[in-house]
Structures are given as C-alpha cells and as structure tokens.
Amino acid sequence: MKDLHPIHLPKGYQINTRPTERFVNYLLMEIKAGHHGSVGEGAGRIGKTSAIRYLCDQNQTWLSKLPGGGIAAHLRLPLSARRSDDKFFETLAEALGMDASERPANKKKRQRMVNYVLARCGAAGVNTMVLFIDNAHRLSRDELDYLADLVDDVEQAHIHLFLALIRQSDANGVNVSAKAKNYPSNISGRFFLGEHRYTGLLGLPDVEHALQRFHVSAFWPKGSGISFVQHFAPAAVASGWTPDQQASFIEDIRQQVRAEGKLRPSDEWPMKTFTGMVKFLLTEVAGNDRSFRQFTEDHIRVALKVCGYMTLEYVRAGLVPDETRP
Questions:
Q1: ∠45-47-52 over CA atoms, to 5°?
Q2: Overall domain count for the chain
C-alpha cells in the first residue's frame, strides 16, 4: 500500500486550480471585511469538496495573508432529521472528529465547540478560524441560529470564527440570495452578505494551468522531485513534453465530443471528469507505453468516455443520457 502511487488512492492528492485561487481571494476579502460567514455555492461534482481539502491542507499558506494569521477546518454536515441545539453541536463535534470523551452532555456541548475553536487558534498562535461547512444546504433556520450563537460566543474571546457555508446549488433549486431574504437580520447579516459561485475549470487558461499542476506541484515520492507526469511518462518528459502543451488540443476535442453529442459548447469543465481524464491518460496511456511521446485524438476521446464526461454533462444539462450517443 505504501508503494502505491497517490493517483490511485481515493483522495490521495489535491492540486491547486484557478477556481480554487478565485475562491481563496474571495474568502480573504470577506474575512478582512469583518464578516462572520459567507456562502460558497456550486453544482455537484464541480470540485468544491476537493478545493476545501486542498485549502485545509494548505491553510498556513493562504491564511498567512490575514493580520494575525489563521487556521482552517472542514466538516461535512450529515443529512439528519430536525436537530435540537444539543444534538446539533454533538453532530458538529462528531463531524470534526472529536472522540466521546470530548463531547460532554447537554448544555456543555456548545461550549465544547467554543473551546475547540479557541484551543485550535491558541495552539497555532492565530486569531482567525475558517470553518468550512460542507453540505450547508442541509442547515435549517434553527441551526443557523445555533451557529450565530457559536460565532458570538467565540467572539467574546477576541477570536474571529468565519463560517464558509458550502452549498450545492442544485440540491433543491433555491437561489441562495433569494433564500437569504427569508431570514432575520441576525442571520442574513452574519452569513448572507456575500456569495461566491464556485465553478469548474473555465476555458483554456484554467485547463492549461490545471494540467501544469501535475508536472510542477504534484510529486511522488514526496521530496523526490519526480512529478506525476514524469513518473508515468519519463521518456516524453525527457524529450521536453508536458501535458499542458496539449491543453488547446484537448479542449478542441472536448468541444467536438460535445457537438457530436448534441450539446452546446461550454467553457466549464467539472473537476470530477477532468481529473478522471488525466488519471486515465497518465496511468493507462502514458504509463503503459514505453514509446509514448504525446497524446493523440484517440487517447483523448477514450479518456473522455472512460471518465464519464458526457454522462455527467447530460445530467448537468437536464437531459436523459442516450446510450447511442458517443
């Protein structure tokens, strides 16, 4: 297991992308403005959770841009029936990985969350925590009230708790900004003053940048200086080839496949199918051909099919997939 390349492991690696960079810039602007939270929304499989994992892993880098620095944590909110305040804070503690001994009963549960934030910030020597709440579309109005209380309690210790409410925009078809109007000012003023639309890769520059990450920032073994691309295509890399050089070629074929499938052109490419395509191209194409020098049209078409590109695009377009389509 220890010798298995990270590209073969579930959640084995993350790369930075332009959509993630745009999200970071937005979050830093909101935090510096003194806001207590904001909504990040985007369609399913677009890459939101992968971006959160990357930002939590790299939190010391991007949060160092804040006065006093900061740390980040991530929890995925499970689907649940209506929760009391005690049950809600118990759910948060479980999602953050606290063991049973750290989860006192009854009224102490919210205080335990307060202590968690203060302890993490104290240990890191920072005064800001960004808490990413994934699946935030599952939060009820009462639960948003509980979170507002949590923010107020933490603020008493002069610590800034910023809640990034990550919401799947197609989860229930309700626009976040419109929904915010249904909440009182103590909720909308804390969590709905800003909204960021998280996207997939947008256009050729984003695709080129993402392909480049597999050669300039993804290495294995760690510290070896051997990039993911070099590992699977050493001869091609030695001759001067890198996959980002073929970004325009890949994009042209992707648009051709869309047109052949009766879909309109689209600049947006979900990370789910993009990373699936890259994995296939590196491991099954380049990795299995000692004479490999660059990707061909057939390589790209097969990779798009294997990663389920058109199936996901039909779903995103609200169409029923037709098995007779390419």
A1: 130
A2: 2
d(CA 254, CA 301): 8
- Host domain of residue 191: 18-197
Do 252 and 143 sit in the same domain of this protein?
no
CATH number at residue 48: 3.40.50.300
For residue 194, the model assigns a pLDDT of: 87
pTM: 0.88
Task: Enumerate long-range contacts of 313-322, CB under 8 Å, 24 or more apart.
Answer: 313/258, 313/261, 313/263, 313/266, 314/261, 314/263, 316/43, 316/270, 317/263
pLDDT of residue 45: 87
193 and 227 part of one domain: no
* Phi, psi torsion values for 74, nearest 5 degrees: -135, 130
Does residue 200 contact residue 269 with C-beta atoms inside 8 Å?
yes
CB-based burial label for 52 (10 Å; 0-12, 13-18, 19+): buried
For residues 272 and 45, is the Cβ–Cβ distance under 8 A?
yes
- In a shared domain, residues 225 and 191: no
